[in-house]
Amino acid sequence: MADKPSPIDVQKTLGGLDYPASKEDIVKKAEGAGAEGTVLEALKNLPERQYDAPTDISKEIFD
């Protein structure tokens, strides 16, 4: 992925998400929050698994 979203934008998009959350839960939350562009693309590219905390999502996107 060439362009990565801002970590702040990702966390704002997922604010209020209940954990643990599946990739599907995360993408639905982002779409409901009106996410687009690099934020939505990054979330759609997450591996299929359970995420226990926002830091788990950030590690997948930014590490």
Explain what you see.
The chain has one domain (7-62). Helix 2 runs antiparallel to helix 3 (37-44). The longest helix is centred in the middle third of the chain and has 10 residues, at 23-32. It is built from four helices and two strands. The chain is mainly α and 63 residues long.
Question: What key attributes describe this structure?
Answer:
mainly alpha; 6% strand; 63 residues; globular; 2 strands
Give the oligomer, counting copies of the same chain as homo and different chains as hetero.
Answer: single chain
Low-confidence region ranges: none
Which descriptor suits the 3D outline?
Answer: globular
Biggest sheet character: 2 strands, antiparallel
Would you count the extended β strands for me?
2
Give the domain tally: 1
**What strand line-up does the widest sheet have?**
1-2
What gyration radius follows from the Cα positions, in whole Å?
Answer: 10 Å
The residue-averaged pLDDT reads 95
β content, as a range?
5-15%
Q: What share of residues is helical?
A: 40-55%
Please report the number of helical segments. 4
Structural class of the secondary elements?
mainly alpha
